[in-house]
Design brief:
alpha/beta; 408 residues; Rossmann fold
Length: 408
């Protein structure tokens, strides 16, 4: 029996960035994989060819990132239901808030046969410190959708405690995994000689203090806080001498970032690298990374920095709390504490060679629990459990026992 699994997200770059290991697991188990997404989001890149080379069937639907774009998402739901029916989908694995909404609605609305529904929450929108509106609206939505969810997966302790309050579908399971999985064969400290050569290629002098941020240019990633911290230094006697700041990423805040850099007088200090395929090389050249996100489910950019032995100046959120230790592997402050980020820059810049070496070791050690082999082992367990349920359902259906999951 051919088995079909559908992965649903809102953006076309999600599967190549976060789901490659899951695809390998599922293909080894004999599944045909369908990737359903908005192929034109984000607009600045396309991963169509990479997805197809993975042996995955790619489908476009009009899904929008915002749940308030109701017309687009209603159309996307109809398109999704059509794909589920056409390809006899056995399992839907949905990601991202709108993907999670439409995937679970689709699972509920299927009439002829209901697929199992897996939802990975990469960060609930009703996190601690979120606006009251978020906590009231999104908690209620997630609580309702949980009843149509066979497997819920979360990636941090705060979300795990919240999800324990939900009632999942009959027989449903809740799991916590260590994120998408950190590839420590890629994100590892650079040899000194290679690091020096790469810094020279980037125009970073040996005695420069090089800061790096990695992430989409948007409001949540909050790179403006780092700019404001640097601008504050420029207004004081600390200045910006020998400080360079590189930002890897693109997004709809690109024009605003360029304007802010000019308005704050940071043109000689800040470089926008745009979308980068060589993030490990740039990140490995850094003296510290700065990760000022307002919210994170986990924050792979922070973990990737730590794995390379680069301390992180991070905002305090439920994601970074999973791995950040203030003063040991970096510096932690509130996302809106500009003075805090400025102090973090000064603290990392002022480290003695001995303290810098000790912090590097602690950075590397703190990233080890998030190695992809742990995530892979958990996902193998989750998918194997679902596969066993599918096989049992097929057997019961073939033998005339009507208590398979589509009729519960």
């Amino acid at each position: 029996m051919e088995k079909h699994l559908l992965i649903l997200t809102t953006t076309n770059d999600f599967l190549p960035k976060f789901e490659q290991e899951n695809v390998k697991i599922l293909q080894q188990m004999g599944y045909v994989i369908h990737y359903v997404t908005n192929r034109f989001e984000p607009h600045y890149r396309s991963d169509d060819e990479r997805v197809r080379k993975m042996g995955v069937h790619l489908h476009h639907i009009e899904i929008a990132r915002s749940p308030y774009l109701i017309h687009d998402n209603q159309k996307a739901l109809r398109q999704l239901l059509g794909l589920i029916h056409k390809y006899h989908i056995d399992v839907i694995h949905c990601h991202t808030p709108v993907g999670g909404l439409l995937g679970r609605l689709a699972g509920k609305l299927c009439r002829d046969r209901r697929p199992y529904v897996v939802y990975t929450a990469h960060g609930f929108h009703f996190y601690k410190g979120a606006p009251l509106f978020n906590r009231l609206l999104y908690f209620g939505v997630e609580e309702a959708l949980a009843r149509w969810t066979d497997v819920m997966i979360v990636i941090n302790e705060e979300d795990y405690r919240s999800a324990q309050k939900f009632r999942l579908k009959h027989g449903g399971r809740l799991y916590k995994i260590p994120g998408a999985g950190l590839d420590r064969s890629v994100f590892k400290p650079l040899p000194d000689e290679k690091r020096d050569a790469l810094r020279a290629r980037l125009g970073i002098e040996q005695d420069d203090f090089f800061l790096v941020s990695v992430g989409e240019l948007n409001e949540n990633k909050n790179q403006k806080a780092a700019l404001e911290a640097l601008a504050k230094r420029k207004r004081t006697n600390k200045g910006l001498s020998k400080i360079k700041y590189g930002i890897c990423g693109d997004g709809f805040y690109r024009n605003r970032m360029e304007r802010w850099i000019l308005e704050m007088g940071l043109k000689e200090t800040v470089t926008l690298y745009g979308y980068c395929s060589n993030v490990p090389e740039i990140l490995g050249c850094a003296d510290a990374s700065i990760f000022p996100s307002k919210r994170e489910g986990l924050g792979m950019a922070g973990l990737e920095s730590l794995a390379m032995g680069v301390p992180v100046i991070a905002s305090d959120n439920r994601g970074t709390r999973e791995y950040m230790e203030h003063g040991k592997n970096g510096y932690v402050c509130r996302y809106d504490d500009i003075d805090g980020f400025e102090r973090g820059i000064e603290a990392m810049k002022s480290l003695s060679p001995e303290k810098k070496a000790a912090m590097k070791i602690h950075c590397i050690d703190s990233a080890k629990p998030f190695d992809k082999r742990y995530t892979t082992a958990m996902m193998q367990r989750i998918y194997s459990s679902l596969d066993q349920r599918l096989e049992r359902e097929a057997y019961e259906k073939a033998s005339g026992n009507q208590h398979y999951h589509g009729c519960i």
